[in-house]
Amino acid sequence: MTAKNAVRKRDVIRSLRQPKVAAMLMLGFSSGLPFFLTGNTLGYWMRDEGTALSAIGFLSWVGLAYSFKFLWAPIIDRVDAPGLGRLGRRRGWMVLTQALVGIGLVAIATVGRSSGLAALGALALLVAFSSSTQDIVVDAWRIEAAADADELGLLSASYQFGYRIAVLVSEAAILILASHFGWRLSYAVMGALMAIGISASLIATEPLRAKKAGASQAEAPLWTARGFFDAVIGPFTEFFRVYGWLALLMLAMISFYQLPEYLTGPMYNPLYHDIGLSKDAVGTVRASIGLIATLVGIAAGGFSALRFGYLPTLIAGVIIKMLVIANFATLAHAGPNITVFGAVIAADNFGIGFAGVALVTYMSSLTSIGYTATQYALLSSAYTYVGKFAKGFSGVIVERLAVGRPLIDAYGLFFIGAGLLGIPALVLCIFLARATREPKAPVVST
Questions:
Q1: Contact 56, 271 (CB under 8 A)
Q2: With contact defined as beta carbons under 8 Å apart, do 372 and 349 qualify?
Q3: Phi and psi (nearest 5°) for 143?
Q4: Interval 278-307: pLDDT, tens
Q5: Which of 95, 124, 172, 201 has its CA at 20 to 30 Å from residue 77's CA atom?
Q6: What's the total number of domains in the chain?
């Protein structure tokens, strides 16, 4: 790799001023904001109002919409958004789904717990479905807008920054708001924040690569046999044609990679509630120490992926993830100790940020232009299959572990066991690293 092609700090800083990078940051925020509002944060609200852990776990199943988004991704790849076709296929769908997410969150704020879990679950499902559809098109835009592999890495990192900031808002800032102004107003504010994503979609430009790919394919109408095959079957056959039998191992690795994180997701906030941490304390630590650790983790993950490659970084990431998730057992036994809580959150956010960059960039590199939305939806759905299903039983697992022992001990055993569930992903990562030859990472100059 010559000095001309090396990634230089000044080039990265200059690229941050590019409109597409700024738009990607905002779109990442828009993608990340709804995710926990139908999962972990909603569980905190429910626990505050006395909902059983088992019900909280089952309610998290609305997130299965993210697992099956590859089923309607072909429509997103081939059909314009109703009434918004003039914006372009990618931008039109982004605006539509972002508006639906905002409306759904405001509706949740309006309905609240008073109308029963069924009504709340239906609205949460609307938000999850719209959010997962937004993810399909935002991921496609990110991959198609990148001019080369270096810019893809930059846009992926920008996406992760925006996404993680949104997670802090929807997991930390909202707790402070809820503590002082109530859950309903807090959710209404989250709905209004979706205007950030709509603004980004309007200022973004439609990717030229997607237009050229669509024109070169001479698309047949979706309702014809050829059109249906090209849109629905084509992306999958192309993916397996390129990677052969290793494609199955890639999907399995991606699926197990996120299992520990997904399984534990619904139980974090109930744990904080049950050990006596206040919403102000949780929100403040997440928004301060958590934010810093997340940014450091993302930067470290990006550097590692650039310097050592995606697969070695994935291996390091899954090991770190196993350790930081099991470490929540320490918090369970320490009680409402703000120092221990801060250390546990810092370690967790660093590990999740580190692993996230490598996973997103690795999956992005596997897609083919022309089938971007569908193939990436397949890959990003893969890491939710096992985890999204398993997380529904998280509350039941903790309650069963609590039989004959204190609830706090049950929490500790749960998080240790969840950390160990990363072992299958670790084994698969090591096998893929040996079975495939990843291009040598570019030299990083200072």
A1: no
A2: no
A3: -70, -40
A4: 888 988 898 889 889 988 998 888 788 777
A5: 124
A6: 1
Distance from C-alpha of 220 to C-alpha of 222, rounded to nearest angstrom: 6
Which one-letter amino acid corresponds to residue 92?
A: G
Domain that holds residue 24: 17-205+222-435
Task: Confirm whether 65 is domain-assigned.
Answer: yes
Indicate whether 215 belongs to any domain. no
Please state the pTM of the whole predicted model.
0.68
In this structure, is residue 5 part of a structural domain?
Answer: no
Q: What share of the chain is helix, strand, coil (3-state, %, to 5)?
A: 80, 0, 20
What average pLDDT is seen over the chain? 81
- Cα-Cα-Cα-Cα dihedral sign, residues 378, 383, 388, 393: positive
Tell me what pLDDT residue 312 has: 87
- For 357-377, what is each residue's pLDDT tens digit? 878 777 777 776 566 667 777
**pLDDT score for 446:** 34
- Binned at pLDDT 50, 70 and 90, residue 439 comes out as very low
Q: Hey, what amino acid is at 186?
A: S
Residue 440 located in a structural domain: no
Residue with tokens 């609830």: 407
Rounded Cα–Cα distance for residues 133 and 377 (Å)? 9
Of 187, 31, 195, 191, nearest to 103 by C-alpha is 191
Task: Measure the CA–CA gap between 416 and 260, rounded to whole angstroms.
Answer: 10
12-18: Cβ within 8 A, 24+ apart: 12/154, 15/151, 15/154, 16/158
* DSSP state letter for 16: T
Rounded-to-integer distance, Cα 301 and Cα 310, Å: 9
- C-alpha to C-alpha distance for 220 and 79, rounded to whole angstroms: 11
CA separation for the pair 393, 19 (Å, rounded): 43
Rounded to whole angstroms, what are the CA distances from 148 to 253, 301, 428? 26, 20, 28
User: Which structure tokens are listed for 222?
Assistant: 């979706």
Out of 95-99, 102-106, 167-171, 435-439, least confident range: 435-439
- Where residue 3 falls among pLDDT bands split at 50, 70, 90? very low
3-state SS class at 66: helix
